Amino acid sequence: MFDIYTIIFLALAVFIFVRLRSVLGQRTGRERPPYDPYSARDAARDTVRPADNVVALPGRAADKQSPAAAEPVPPEERWKGVAQPGTALATGLDAILVDDASFDAQHFIAGARAAYEMIVNAYAEGDRGTLKNLLSREVYDGFEQVIREREGRGETVETKFVSIDATEITAAEMRGKIAQITVRFVSQLISATRDGTGNVIDGSPDKVTEVTDIWTFARDISSHDPNWKLVATETGQ
Prior knowledge:
By secondary structure, the chain is of the alpha+beta class. It is built from seven helices and five strands, in the order αααααααβββββ.
């Protein structure tokens, strides 16, 4: 027959067990890998928080196997569809892979394509918050100055993507611990600039124009920050 103290201790033990199980069995949300600002656009729309306003150039694939578990890829297959073996581009990508074993060129291209469209649209709309998260300080300052001057004149820009016909890596290198990748974009755009009264003063709201841009993205491989930033832009042929 149990006395009152035995009953109290049993009840206390059951209570502690239930509490431990409830705590240890819960997911706190901290198990999720860090948000990668260079994943594909659709994935970014699902994961980005309104305050983040960050996009997706995947330097790291969260669902890839660890380097130790992954099977070695033959050099002739490593950059298939991206760079020919033995070229300067392949050598540059190899150098990035040495410092970041999870780097995936195809994922990077998909993210660069998404970032390109977002940056062009944000520039047209004067969306400084989005631009600040995706551009280096120097590039942001240049973009912001043009936006400020445009706003001062009362002008607005309308931009619409018809298609992005090509996205290809043209150069890659390591500068110390900074990885740099240059991408060539060929897109079909409709773009028009209007003055304060709504009259078109540049471009056309109906005409499709082919645009070629060459952009360079960079990331500090030694940093825990997975963000790639746009560090240079130029118009291509």
